Amino acid sequence: LVRAKLDFDRADQLFKEKLIARQEYDSRKASFDALEAGVREAEARVSQLKAQRGQTAAQLAASQKRIAQVQAGLRRVSDVLQKHSAISPIDGVVTNLPVRVGETVVPGIQNSAASLIMTVADMSLITAEVKVDETDIVNVKLSQVADVTVDAIPGKTFKGRVIEIGNTAILRSTGLAASQSAISSQEAKDFKVVVALDSPPESIRPGLSCTAKITTATRTNAVTIPIQALTVRQKGDLEAPADGKNGNVQAAGNADPKAEKARKEEIQGVFVLEGEKAVFRKVDTGITGATDIEVTSGLKEGDEIITGSYKVIRTLRNQAKIKVDNKAPVKTES
After folding, report:
1. With contact defined as beta carbons under 8 Å apart, do 129 and 194 qualify?
2. Which parts of the chain have pLDDT scores under 70?
3. The CATH number of 223-242+257-321 is which of 1.20.1260, 2.30.30, 2.40.420, 3.30.920?
């Protein structure tokens, strides 16, 4: 356009000086006018395109806002959908279903009863929770072998191993931890022990009652006696009465305290049959079974010991004459 304007201005000057023909002047003027009109048209198109660009930018911003709104709605619906679908974190069997269709549950509150919709048990590891008396818990160790019997599956014994030993005593009467109860500490207590079954049957279900026998120790070629044959006597009761010349007993006020304490010392032992007399013999014991106890010293294989009811053994005196009766006791109907 600038070049065309320069050509037109030169032609105009030459035409005024009558140096060129009018026809050439008109041609250059028409060429300049055409180019000027094209520039104006281009500028108009640029202005139109700028307006369209602004409109397109406004449409883009509106579309982006609509996308953000749709994404927010999608997140809300997805959150609602996730709350409607309960996904178990483990594979297992549903053992408890406290709610039914139509009931209201409260999500996200673990301590609320309304938030529990089901209980899933992991059946890949079957465990038995048993209670062990406080006098026996000191002998229980991890990985010890146990024989588990299930009440619902009679006649079968399942092998297992100890995988957990509780550290808190549980009161036998209430089932609460001893540290959380105000009951006297003299009450009997148990400890929880968890036994994992090695090969549980497919028919077993959570919550079944069971009993476990844990093998805490084993002995081979051991001398054993029935537990009911083991008794305790004071040392003074086992001593033969002294034959004093005057036949008088020493007054209690003049008794030696050390001698009296020695006489009251308790000795553990059994009564052994020697001839027709029951002779008390001190023994040392080892591990204890369900009905028998190991004797580590004081007896040898072949010794005949005296056994019977607790009352008979407790009242039996040393060197007392007895009559051997190995017949089974007859049960009397009450």
Report:
1. yes
2. 1, 107-114, 181-185, 240-255, 328-334
3. 2.40.420
Under a CB-based contact definition with an 8 Å cutoff, are residues 214 and 194 in contact? no
Put the strands of the sheet holding 292-297 in their side by side order. Answer: 223-226, 292-297, 284-288
Residue 214 burial by Cβ neighbours in a 10 Å radius (0-12, 13-18, 19+): buried
Residue-wise pLDDT for 292-306, tens only, equals: 899 999 888 888 898
Where residue 201 falls (left for φ over 0; alpha for ψ -120 to 50; beta otherwise) is beta
Rounded distance between C-alpha atoms, residue 147 and residue 213, angstroms: 5
The CATH class of 126-214 is mainly beta
Contacts 24+ apart (CB under 8 A), 278-281: 278/306, 278/316, 278/317, 278/318, 278/319, 278/320, 278/321, 278/322, 279/318, 279/319, 280/233, 280/238, 280/318
* Burial status of residue 36 (CB atoms within 10 A of its CB: 0-12, 13-18, 19 or more): middle
CA distance 190 to 132: 5
For residue 28, give the amino acid letter: R
The residue among 315, 321, 230, 232 whose CA lies nearest residue 273 is 321
What is the distance between the alpha carbons of residues 164 and 162, in angstroms, rounded to a whole number? 6
Domain pair 126-214 / 223-242+257-321, same fold: no
Predicted TM-score (pTM) of this structure: 0.55
Domain boundaries of the chain, sorted by first residue: 2-80, 88-124, 126-214, 223-242+257-321
Euclidean distance between CA atoms 329 and 325, whole angstroms = 10
Q: Look at residue 251 in the predicted model and tell me its pLDDT.
A: 46
Q: Are 208 and 142 in contact (CB under 8 A)?
A: no
